[in-house]
Amino acid sequence: MTVGLRLDEAVWGLLHQALQLYRDNPRATGHLRHQLARLEQPLRVAVAGPWRSGKSTVLNAIMGEEVAPIDGPDGSGIFTWYEDGPQPRATAYSGSQPPQELTVLKSATGMRVDLVGWREGELRDIVVQWPTRALRQVTLIDTPAIVGADEHGRAPVMDRVLRDADAVLYLTRDGRGTDLRVLESTRDSRVGQAAPVNVILMLSRVDETGGGRIDGLLTARQLARRQHRDPRVNALCVNLVACSGLLGLAGRVLSESDYAALAQLAQVSREELDPHLLSAERFVRAELPVRLDTEVRAALLNRLGLIGVRLATTLVRTGCDSRGKLAAELIRRSGLTELRESINRFFVDRRDTLKARSALAAVEALLQAEPGPGTGELLSAVEQILAGAHEFRELRLLAALRTTRLGFDAELAAEAQRLVGGDGVGLAARLGLEHDAPVQRLWEVAADAQWQWRNRAEDPLLRLSQRRGAQVVVRSCEGMLAELAEGGR
User: Fold this and answer.
1) Cβ burial, residue 355 (10 Å; 0-12/13-18/19+)
2) pLDDT tens, 278-302?
3) Could you say which of 274, 307, 328 is where a domain stops?
4) Structural domain of residue 413, as residue ranges?
């Protein structure tokens, strides 16, 4: 919601100024033209995190198909890009050979790409085209594990993640320690310090929380809400969610044969079945109270994990009497729905702002790496855009509202958050109305909100920080009224 300065126009103009400045530098001009092209491309979202944090499983759960990971030599060192395409296709990129098409092997629930013949460390990137709605607006990037962070949290993989991606879904097992230091180390530039706008932190593998109890998922979500109130965590991300990628993916690809096997297990009482679910070896190898082939048990274990099998059989006993009902309940309990809503609200809905942010970061890095006559003026222009663009002011206000440091009461803070796009950037979402509300109603609510928040912005009894926050809300309301006057909804 731009008022006054148009962020997209300002960034476009800055890139062309930089192109003129570096016109005699082919490497720099190629980099800047790449940034211009990125403004027109889908949003790039990297899925990052430490070893065994469940990145590929979460990526599959988001897409709803088993596409990642890519099998091959040293697969952990490859950046794999998943983008929409008319048909399944995979292309390998290395530093020493031309791009090469790879063989795609389709399966009932997705695909597999084998990298036979490639040597360890030879591949840099694999671009996978896959026809799915989940990739219409975003390109997902499966990144190598974050390893080797120094005492300051610097990790080489994150440097490339931040260059190539517009937003980051960062997976962590506990949301503490090294993971927070890695994220803190990324905020060492003007753009990085502007606001924590491009990171969602995700507590992963939460099906393993709570000692294996089936209510562990609820415990994990409560932990996520509590941790997000921590000022250190809140300063690094726009949201913190808990999600079991394993259960979310199981819900999305659950087959009728999977359900039939689970229903067969659910015929056994919990007291009789639970001893067989104490370990994977016992579940697969021991003699069960019902006839279920070893291969079927192993497939269930691979699909759901021990805790998932325990949860799924309980759900079948308590009313999930069809594959569709069980799949929906597994998805709901996994936290995948909340994760996808967060990605849509904080990333996809703000894709233009995030792409502009990436371009600003790229220009800033180039100006600092290759200084010369005129670079100081362009660095000042970067600062002016960051300070003046209303989109960034909204995001900074959202960050302040989440920490409660402005001092607004809960009701006012919630209203301000909604009006500046914290609950969705569409007009109806900002105004708290149904999506099909008539234009007259939208206008009335926006005008009333503008009047009320202007009074707060001019109230001498409020603290300066509160009045400035209210001014941002007023500008957002003005933008909504201007959009309505131009025929928008």
Assistant:
1) buried
2) 888 888 887 888 888 889 989 999 9
3) 328
4) 407-485
